[in-house]
Amino acid sequence: MAKKSAAPSQDGRRPTSLFIFSETNPIRRYTKFIIEWPPFETAVLMTIIANCVVLALEEHLPEGDKTMLAIKLEATETVFLCIFCVEASLKIMALGFVLHKGAYLRNIWNIMDFIVVVTGLVTILADERLTAGVDFRTLRAIRVLRPLKLVNGIPSLQVVLKSIIKAMAPLLQIGMLVLFAIVIFAIIGLEFYFGALHKTCYDLKDFSKFKTEGDSPTPCDMSNAWGGYRCNESVSMCLEGWVGPNYGITSFDNIGFAMLTVFQCITMEGWTSILYWTNDAIGSKFNVIYFVPLIILGSFFMLNLVLGVLSGEFAKERERVENRQAFLKLRRQQQLERELNGYVEWICKAEEVILAEERTTEEEKMHIMEARRKAAAKRKKLKNLGKSKSTDTEEEDNDGEEDALYMPKKKSGLAKASYLKSKIKNQGACAGFWRAEKTFRFAIRKAVKTQFFYWFVIVLVFLNTVCVAVEHYNQPDWLAQFLYYTEFVFLGLFISEMLIKMYALGPRIYFESAFNRFDCVVISGSIFEVVWSTIKPESSFGLSVLRALRLLRIFKVTTYWSSLRNLVISLLSSMRSIISLLFLLFLFILIFALLGMQLFGGEWNFKDGTPPANFNSFAVALLTVFQILTGEDWNEVMYNGIKSQGGHDNGGMIYCLYFIVLVVFGNYTLLNVFLAIAVDNLANAQELTAAEEEQEEEDKEKMAAELEKEIGALHVADGAPTVEICPPSPHAPVRNHSSDNRPSLQAMKGDTVDEEEATGPKPMLPYSSMFILSSTNPIRCAAHWVVNLRYFDFFIMFVISLSSIALAAEDPVVEQSNRNKILNMFDYAFTGVFTVEMILKVVDLGVVLHPGSYCRDLWNILDATVVICALVAFGHGGSSTGQNLSTIKSLRVLRVLRPLKTIKRVPKLKAVFDCVVNSLKNVVNILIVYMLFQFIFAVIAVQLFNGKFFYCTDNSKVLEQECQGEYFVYTDDNQPPEVHERKWNKQDFHYDDVMMAMLTLFAVQTGEGWPTVLQNSMAATSEDNGPKPHYRIEMSLFYIVYFIVFPFFFVNIFVALIIITFQEQGEAELQDGELDKNQKSCIDFVIQARPLERYMPKDRKSCKYKMWKIAVSTPFEYFIMVLIILNTLLLMVKNYPQSDSEEKVVRNLNNVFTLLFAIECALKVVAFGVRNFCKDRWNTFDLITVLGSIVDAIATETQMTSSINLGFLRLFRAARLIKLLRQGYTIRILLWTFVQSFKALPYVCLLIAMLFFIYAIIGMQVFGNMGFDPDSDMNRHNNFQSFFSSVLLLFRCATGESWQSIMLACIKGRPCDPRAIPENDPHKVCGSDFAYAYFVSFIFFCSFLMLNLFVAVIMDNFDYLTRDSSILGAHHLDEFHRIWAEYDPNATGRIEYTEMYDMLRNMEPPLGFGNKCPYRLAHKKLIRMNMPIDEEGKVQFTTTLFALIRENLSIKMRPADEMNQADAELRKTITKLWPLQAKKLLDLLVPPREQLGAGKLTVGKIYAGLLILENWKTTRFGQIAPENQPKASLLERIMGIARPTNPRAAAEPSGPPPPPPAADDDDELCDSDDRQSGDLIGSRRSSIASLVTQLQGGFRPGSFRSRSPSPRAYHSPNSSFRRRVRPQSPYQDRSPSPAASFQRSLPGKDHCDWALPHRHRRLPNERAASISPERRRRTNGYGAGSLDQQSRSPSPPPRRTGNSFPTLPSRRSGGRRLPPTPSRPSTLDPAEFPHVARAAGYRPPPGAAPFNFPKVNASPTHTGRRMPAPGVPPVRRPPLPPTYAAEPQPPLSFEEAVAMGRGTRQLPSPVVPNGYRPGGGGAGVARPAGRRLPQPAGDSEDEDWC
């Protein structure tokens, strides 16, 4: 509701409403009061709900008929419309219509209301002829969204809503990618299957009739291609003219149909039918190559990205809300505790005194005890605040005993028990009785707490559960009687247990336990059910089954309890999110159900009746929408919807949007939030468990330490000197130990694995093998030598591969075929090899008794099992006793386990396998709960539907006695009816016993075929009776609850577990290296990155150069892009049926485009040359596409036919679209990550392939000989008769396509293939009941475990989509590649360091500095990066990129004096994680000390020198003109005056460089002092003086050879400073030591520093080379490209804030915090650190006061006057106006130099020798009076400019 008053207009008056009612108008004032009155809002909401109820009550009948109720309800339309009109009118009068802020139509809810009101008025007032066929009532359904306005206030719903809304931005990117994939696949489909599905078999007798195979017509192939369906030519003929499958909706006739078909395949519903139809129609088995990648890319990849994004957003949003709530809760709790503790302490002392006095009466004592008990209860409440109630009774019982201490006389347990009752009980004749009662009750309490009682109850619960579970259909009378009586017995026992507990503990304590409350509810329910069943014997609620939930108590004694408890706590804490999500889901279903009723109500009347899923009534519409949400058969519902609205050719196709929106938003968005919540909760639970385990470890260690201390104290005599030794602090070592303990354990595990794999031949075990062979025995030695041969394992793997190929090649139908006989001979050989391997290993290792022996390894046991079973099968195969083929077959089936032997031999595969195994370990505790819940639902289902799933094939008969004889079936109007026999059958899935019920529920849970089970359940009437449709529609609630508990929840927890385990596994690998996942992926990128080469012709006047210029120009790129888009549109315009002229036009246009692309390709080949052209992968892709397109055009034009099918060449037409992908930055990043996740998948895929292989071979062996039945799911498309078809069938099951029907088609008693029936057994039946275990286990392993690894990998790689975009990630680094190539077109891998600085300024953060970054901050970053510079003044590609990443992500960045150690650690880490690459690249990644130390020039030294120089020049010493300064040349003076006024306009002077000034004695003094300091301070100290000597003569003119002058490099007179600085002194590796600035500040040294700027000499002009137009074009865009210039945008002015952590409020994260700047100058005494003083030649005079080092201004842009840019020599200038004059600044202090030179990113503050810590603010230092120090700008302000 818009409650905001409108803003005043410019002339001061407030806006009027509708130009009539002013703000003071009484009518407007009253209307405003009304709409803001709360009852008004409530009344409107109640009206909306009533309107929804009216819409829901309406029942839609065919042909627009109406029931009497519907006619009455229609009369209410006018009433509702009037109410909504009044509401809208009042709001418009009160708020104004639209023109000003806060007006009616400025609110989205009001816009929706307005549309509804207007359309309602139109329907009533408009003429019927105008609105014929238009029903505006649909829009009224949108009004049900309005309750969301109130719901918005609920925090948990806010989390769900906000996370979905926030996820919309990244979801849109993914949506674009999915849409792009759909378009590409649709265009490929158009090319291959255009008009293919319109041919079918027509009856030769009557060409208007189809000859069907099974129920429906099948597409046929006229070209007789291999694999196509051919009509039976004696009765039918293949002709074109059929509308196509699914009423013509499923086809590739135009781009719309094709996209819908592809989308349907991506949702994995009905895709196999389309695959089979295309196989039949165009006769090629290669269709799999189109459909399988579509499923893998579309379903497993793209749509799982949605899940990844939602999960990340939900976690972030929830964390934000929870942090806020937790903070408020904690603050409230602390406040309460503080008040309570003070009160309790104050009062307890008084109580103790009173209780101790003898004169205190019993009554007073009771008063005190009562008060104490209340205080204890309050404390307990506070303790449990924010925690879930414990489910452990014993904890509560202990609390009860605690309470008993406070009330020693009588403990009734009731909250209102008072001392008065106690007083009565303690007096008179009853005293003895009460005492005895109390003793008796304590004895019972003690008995209740014993283990015996606990286990006695558990056994009772278990027996009760067994009794409930054995109930089944058609059970004998004695069992029914027995179960009837045991029900009462158990009920009595449980009631007595409850009463005993209640008496022993007291009601209050009893009900405090969650388990006891649950018991009480269950028992009350059971009593109610017993009473109800005596009143109404025929109906049962199934409540008694809830007693099985009491089995949950068993978890108290399991080791998994803590982790399970944490999971439960975590789930309970998120229950609000789940309930709000369910509410959102219900609203969503409600809206779409009402909308569906308006669109499709009463319309679905087809020849074969109304389908069960329809929109005719509200309840059925809700179920239909729910079915679509679960994704099962949504396509069938859509086909019915389109058909009912006119079909595919009469405007019905527009209605498919309703179903697509429902699937996309419901199935893929809302339901994925369930998984997001599960992932989040599970992560929370894992953290809780880990924290608890850590706490336990700490407690154990503390106890052990205390025990040792006590034992030590006992052993040592009193007063012994050893006792006096100060023990270490108990906290620090324990904390360190515990925190380091876990990673080190995992590290040890990791190390041992690595060591095992890394070491060479293993030593022989020092035990005797089989008690015979000692370790020196020559036979054993020989066996050991063979087993450890280098190629032994490789040879075994090769044999395993051959064996696997042989298994796949077997013929499962004809067992005695020649192929099988040959393969059998090979099998003897393979088995022989494996037998020899086993014998050798047993001889080498021994059998089982000692450590390391053969059978101690599970993999060896697997090997042995396979070999022994194969040998047994061979042994029995030839004998007369071994003729039982099934036994031998089952033994030989074990051969499929051989591929598993490879897992052990491939380390990375083993890692993935371990991940799956660990996931299974984690799944176990959830699996137990899962099985229990599954069991409970199964028992409830047995009680509800036992014996009710029978039916007669003749639907008119409902009893078995009636279902006799035969009946007519009418197939067609013109044909006589067919006669069928009546049969009384049971449904395939039923609930007649618990095992079958669990199987049925498992099938329902996978979402396959559940609508059929739902319809059967709603139609079930009574036992042994047939069904009546929609007889008990309320039974659907059972399935809805089941769906929420299982598919929405438990299954998602499975998925979440695997995802989290996978992520933990990945992190465990990195724990040793101390790198996180993002850092590792970035370093991975650097290791693989190589500079890109940008070719450019040398001769600019040549024709080649002009062609090259055209080829690389932006207009040319855009032209090609437009061509690609036009080509795409051309490919989309196909439409079936197409005339010859249309086809000709399309073909000619396609040839034109092919020609244009060929010209483009030729132009690029000529411009770049073949070698350079092929270096770019996109160019290679272009070339292949063009060549393919040319061949395709020639083949099409010449109608050439060849033995090779050239149809695949049409792929190249669609391939051009892919070039569009390289245009968008976001899409490019998405694609790059896509490729990365593919790289992470090979081993996951290998494991999945192994699973498929094993199951495919088992399927071939067990079900391969079954016959085909076109009406069942075992047909010519879908069978186990070859390895390829078995794998395809399993892939179909993995996608969930009717796996339950395939399972039912494989059970025992099915017909065999005629070739598999032996002559001696003509009545042989095939199939096996093993099918149940086979398919259920496959679905569990594949769908729940393996395919979720896909999700895990994707979520792992795409986490950047929801991560803070300011964090550098591997996906940003490709930009560095591209921009480096502009500076280094020849890919030499080196550029000048000035160009490098320029390049980093031109890259946007987080990768580069950005062109708004102040140059001071950029300098500081470069000081920390500190790359070495070679002889030519260039930096290296890999080193620069790695330094950039290292500085950005703070990978082992430490204070300057620790950087050597950090570098060494980092080198060690890189060597460990990347052993192969480290050998070549280690020195490039982390340059060794030799490249950074004494006498070596680095980037850090140059920019440190510049910073120090600039800071020095701001001091008063820097501004004193030296006496012996040589006069500057005229040129220098001109430049010095001209430069600062307009730094950008400076031009490079021509002419020879000025001669260098002669060195004077002062320089020598500086030099000698510096050498001295270098020797004394050590290799990590440095000073500016060495810079001075280098500036004098360290660099000779022309010592740098530049490849090409960068247009960005500013060649100013002082730019040579940047090129020449190369100090000889030792220097810090990463950050320059601040010792230099201290040394310069000492008395008598000033002249060394100010002479520094005048030592420059200009370098001669470098030779010019070619530069790319791209670089030239970009040059002028960046003003801050040179070091000499100030940043284009100045640093922000200093803010006067109270705190010392300057941040910019605009940053999301609140800015990085920096150490506070000291407010007073430091007093620094050089005598405190004599080594520096000695080096400086300083001798403190006696009694000398310490030096004062006042602060300096932090930035030249903040100084009082304009400072020259760094490196510009100070020159004499005319006096400045008074506004620019500034008092001389004091020199830079040592501490401030440290603070400035050191990093700002997460580095600990260095402690400098005088104890000053930059974070602390220099305690105890006085500021000189009268001096106001300038406020420095914070570093974080600078950083926020980047």
How many distinct beta strands?
10
The end-to-end distance, rounded to whole angstroms, is 41 Å
Radius of gyration: 42 Å
Strand content: under 5%
The averaged pLDDT comes out at: 74
Report the structural category.
mainly alpha
Roughly how much helix do the residues carry, as a percent range? 55-70%
How would the global form be characterised? globular
Biggest β-sheet: count, sense, barrel?
2 strands, antiparallel
Tally of DSSP helical segments? 65
Strands of the largest sheet, in order across it? Answer: 1-2
Segments where pLDDT lies below 50 for 5+ residues? 1-11, 386-420, 720-759, 1534-1738, 1743-1784, 1797-1842
Report on the structure:
- The structure is a single chain.
- The protein is an all-alpha fold and 1842 residues long.
- The chain is built from 65 helices and 10 strands.
- Helix content is 57%, strand content 2%.
- The strands form 5 sheets. A two-stranded antiparallel sheet has the order 1-2. A two-stranded antiparallel ribbon has the order 3-6. Strands 4-5 form a two-stranded antiparallel sheet.
- The two termini are 41 Å apart.
Can you describe this structure in just a few lines?
The chain has 1842 residues and is an all-alpha fold. Helix content is 57%, strand content 2%.
Features:
65 helices; 2% strand; globular; mainly alpha; 1842 residues; two-stranded antiparallel sheet
